[in-house]
Each structure stands twice: as C-alpha cells, then as structure tokens.
Amino acid sequence: MVGLLLVGLGGLLALVLVVLVRVSLVLRAGSRLQQQRRRRRSTDTGSVSVSVLVVAGSGGHTSEMLRLMDSLSPSYSPRHYVIADTDRMSEDKICSSERSRRQENSEDQFFIHRIPRSREVLQSWSSSIFSTLRALRFSIPLVFRLRPDVVLCNGPGTCVPLCVAALLLGILGMKKVVLVYVESICRVQNLSLTGKILYPITDYFFVQWACLRDKYPRSIFLGRIV
C-alpha cells in the first residue's frame, strides 16, 4: 500500500511539473480564444454566448445530460462535449440531439472531444488512481485551451479530472469557471462516488430527491429536472 501511495505521489508531482511547463503555452492559446469569444458577442441584442463544457458518460448518464441540454437556451454555445475514448455510443446520441437543435438554430456550434476514461466498470480502486491521473493529464490541456464559462456534469467518473482542471484554471488566476453538477435521478438515498468527490468544490450542486437535499445542505433541490 505504501508503495502504491509513493508511486501515486510521484506521478502527481510529475503531473504538476508538466502543468507548469504548459502554462505559458496555454496562456497564449487562451488569449486568442478569448478574442474569438468577444467577437461572438451580439452587439445588436446585447446577449452574450456562454461556452459550456458538457461531460457525457455512457448509457444513462448521456441520456440524462442530453435531456438537460434540450432545456438550455441557444445562448449556451459553443457546446463542447467530452466523452471517454472507450465510449462507443455517446457520440451518435450527441450528434442526433444536436441535429434536432440545428433545425431551430442554424448558428449553434458543438464539438466532441475524447479523453481517457478515469475508471472502467469493475476496474479496481487501486488501479483507478493511475487511470485518473492519466485522464487528468489530458483534461488539463483541453480545459486550458477551451476555457469554458461553465462545466456541466452529472456523474460519470470522467468529470472528476475535468472539474479539477477547471478548478486549477481559476486557482492560477486565468479564468473562473462555474462548476455545475446534477446528480443522477437514480440516486435517491445517497450520492454517487463522483458526487461525493465533487460536492465540496462545485458552485451549484443539484439533487433530484428531497432526502438528498436534507443530507447535503449545500445541494439545490428543484424536483426532477432530467
């Protein structure tokens, strides 16, 4: 166990060094992206587009997330969907949903990005430490390059490294990213593991059952929203 912790700590320190090296490159890329965002602002209506990074998971997570996205206004654009590199179904669902949105607003933009999965089904907890660190290594450059205004997620393990990367963006003073977590409708009595991890750091934490609101006072209960 001690050996695993030392290896994990060594990997984390190596990751920090990689981040420091990449910060200067990210700052340059981010400034160009910020200029592009300013040009997207609509001076005629006074509205401002909100760039959102959406974390999609396999199966039910993606279905719930797409139902939630259907309720958002067109001002949430561009939409950057992030899926695990081993996820073979979510991309088709996302493209189908976005085609429906395009019929209503042809100016909507969406993109799909892939990162390594943090934890596979039935993967051991000890090995998931290393797979999560690997996912974080890919998440940091992606989030720093996109600089979303909002990160929206609902439970897949992939959202943990992405939220950590967004939090790091704010810690470095580069941009404050709003973290929004919507717990899955199937979580009635207890939060998911991902929910427990992200509960302390999210800006808005939504639950869909009143008993969860009673257990977690920082959470927001609006009834069923997906």
UniProtKB/TrEMBL annotation:
<keyword id="KW-0812">Transmembrane</keyword>
<dbReference type="Pfam" id="PF08660">
    <property type="entry name" value="Alg14"/>
</dbReference>
<comment type="subunit">
    <text>Forms with ALG13 the active heterodimeric UDP-N-acetylglucosamine transferase complex.</text>
</comment>
<dbReference type="GO" id="GO:0004577">
    <property type="term" value="F:N-acetylglucosaminyldiphosphodolichol N-acetylglucosaminyltransferase activity"/>
</dbReference>
<keyword id="KW-1133">Transmembrane helix</keyword>
<comment type="similarity">
    <text>Belongs to the ALG14 family.</text>
</comment>
<dbReference type="GO" id="GO:0006488">
    <property type="term" value="P:dolichol-linked oligosaccharide biosynthetic process"/>
</dbReference>
<protein>
    <recommendedName>
        <fullName>UDP-N-acetylglucosamine transferase subunit ALG14</fullName>
    </recommendedName>
</protein>
<dbReference type="GO" id="GO:0043541">
    <property type="term" value="C:UDP-N-acetylglucosamine transferase complex"/>
</dbReference>
<keyword id="KW-0256">Endoplasmic reticulum</keyword>
<dbReference type="InterPro" id="IPR013969">
    <property type="entry name" value="Oligosacch_biosynth_Alg14"/>
</dbReference>
<keyword id="KW-0472">Membrane</keyword>
